[in-house]
Amino acid sequence: MSGSAAARVDLRYRDTILSVNDEPVEDKSHEKIVQMMQQSGFLRLQVKRLLSWQTTIEKAEERGFGFGVRGGADFELPLYILRLYENEDKTRFRGIRVGDVLLAVNSINIANFTHQQAVDLIKKSYQTLQLRLRRGNGTVPALSRGFSR
């Protein structure tokens, strides 16, 4: 959430708070953790960042899987989620955001795939697509070599 306190300190979706002001929170309720944060004049959080996660999305009849990618080995970039099509139901993307990095498609590591190889793999999937992603910073790098995929 742009402009929020969480965004200002780079707290991200799927991060896990381990401690608040050096007090472990593993055995505490959500309400107690919120209370600890609200009562603190200064807040120090220990956070565990989820490095990657897996999700499955369903194919929409008219728009395919409803997202576009940029990058690939031919551009010396990882594959980024470039866009989520506006007319799609955002709940079907299950936390996927523009700028996230695509690590695997249907359990196939795509780290060394060209852009076209990755697109072909996605397109040949039938009704569901299993993705492994890493949270990006919300931006997608420009491409070198004058291409705009």
Automatic annotation (TrEMBL):
- InterPro entries according to UniProt: PDZ (IPR001478), PDZ_sf (IPR036034)
Start and end residues of each PDZ domain: 1-41, 54-137
Q: Name one GO biological process term.
A: signal transduction
> CDD domains annotated for this entry?
PDZ_canonical
> Which GO CC annotations does the UniProt entry carry?
cytoplasm
Official protein name in the record: PDZ domain-containing protein
